[in-house]
Amino acid sequence: MRILVTGGAGFVGSHTADAYLAAGHEVHIIDNLSTGRRTHAPVDAVLHETDIHAVEAERVFRDVRPDIVNHHAAQASVKVSSGDPVRDLEINVGGTARIARLCAEHDVGKLIYASSGGTVYGDPTWLPVSEQHPCVPMSPYGLSKYSGELYVELFSRTHGLDFTIFRYGNAFGPRQDPYGEAGVVAIFAANMLAHRPCTIDGDGEQRKDYLYVSDVARANVLALDHGSRQIYNIGTGHGTSVNEIFQALQDATGDGTPPVYGPPRPGDVRNFWLDCSRARQDLGWKPEVTFEEGARRTVSSLRLR
Ligand SMILES: NC(=O)c1ccc[n+]([C@@H]2O[C@H](COP(=O)([O-])OP(=O)(O)OC[C@H]3O[C@@H](n4cnc5c(N)ncnc54)[C@H](O)[C@@H]3O)[C@@H](O)[C@H]2O)c1
Questions:
Q1: Residue 245 C-alpha to ligand 1 middle, in angstroms?
Q2: Which CATH superfamily is domain 174-209+238-275+285-304 in?
Q3: Is 267 a residue whose pLDDT tops 80?
Q4: Whole-number CA gyration radius for the chain
Q5: From 8, 20, 174, 207, which residue has the greatest number of CB atoms within 10 Å?
Q6: What are the CA-CA distances from residue 206 to residues 20, 191, 236, 272, 292 (Å)?
């Protein structure tokens, strides 16, 4: 298939592009390199360096005529969204509406949309959080990702566009910059390799759903043939505490610098993990890389930099 990956020079998008190439597909990437890097985009993919809002993006749709569009381009930081909610809205909501419209106009077979399980639900009222949980986002970023989902569904209803929506947990792995949603793994690993102390917010017993990025990429490959007009949580189904992350990374790096415990982050959700049984049932997807193995691979990639 001919697949267009937006945001394919970013962290998750580049791993997704890698996975599509490995499965034998032709891959094109649209990325404005605002946070992505040219070197992250696989060499076997065609990189169209442009903005999803630009006229040029429309030309790519016309020339490439993709069978599938995989939409990862976004402003992906909760912190940045809180500082500039309007810009976040323009990129994440306006950008997704535009991509959905282009898909409908250019007869794209399916739009695969990267949403955020960690932010669209808000404070969980039950655990693990299933797809039926109400969406009550607590940040402009969470609201923008959820609004993007609604636009994708709208274009499905009005234009017959097929889609799969993924609500990821906190992805981690090589190529992640330390400011993303799951930046803690990248930040801690980089600190430990430089023997700098890591700051743990609060008591470090807060638990979130961290999953290795190749597992996320694999879900995107499965969505080429499965999961029509469905929403799937993509996570591990359990929480990993910040203390456990710290320990796994100390084991992987061999660093012995003790952590510094700081005040808890205001408004931080203490426990959050996703119920991923729907993805297991429909897509045959389950995470394959343990946190410890993922930590080792992340550290190895940082050592090579
Ligand atoms: N990383 C996670 O844990 C996580 C969790 C849930 C959802 N997501 C979603 O996955 C996607 C990728 O996130 P990431 O962590 O890889 O972030 P990232 O910042 O590494 O990737 C985003 C990519 O989009 C590009 N981009 C941004 N705005 C653009 C625009 N207007 N036009 C063209 N390209 C643009 C950036 O240059 C970058 O390459 C995002 O949609 C994000 O919301 C990520």
A1: 23
A2: UDP-galactose 4-epimerase, domain 1 (3.90.25.10)
A3: no
A4: 18
A5: 8
A6: 34, 20, 16, 9, 18
Cα angle value 36/38/41 (rounded, 5°): 85
**pLDDT digits 0-9 by tens, 154-165:** 999 999 999 999
Query: How many angstroms is it from 71 CA to the middle of ligand 1?
Result: 9
pLDDT in tens, 194-227: 999 999 999 999 999 999 999 999 999 999 999 9
Locate CATH 3.40.50.720 in the chain. Answer: 2-170+210-234
Q: For ligand 1, say whether the CB of 209 is within 6 Å of any of its atoms.
A: no
Judge contact between 115 and 220, C-beta under 8 A: no
Characterize the bridge pairing of strands 240-241 and 207-208: antiparallel
**163: three-class secondary structure by DSSP:** strand
* Distance from C-alpha of 98 to C-alpha of 92, rounded to nearest angstrom: 10
Please identify, in words, the CATH class of the domain defined by 2-170+210-234. Answer: alpha beta
The rounded distance, in Å, linking the Cα atoms of 300 and 103 is 38
Report the residue count for the chain: 305
Q: Does the annotation mark 141 as catalytic?
A: yes
Dihedral of the CA atoms 150, 151, 153, 159 (nearest 10)?
Answer: 160
Is residue 130 packed enough to be buried (19+ CB in 10 Å), middle (13-18) or exposed (0-12)?
middle
Q: Is the CB of 168 under 6 A from ligand 1?
A: yes
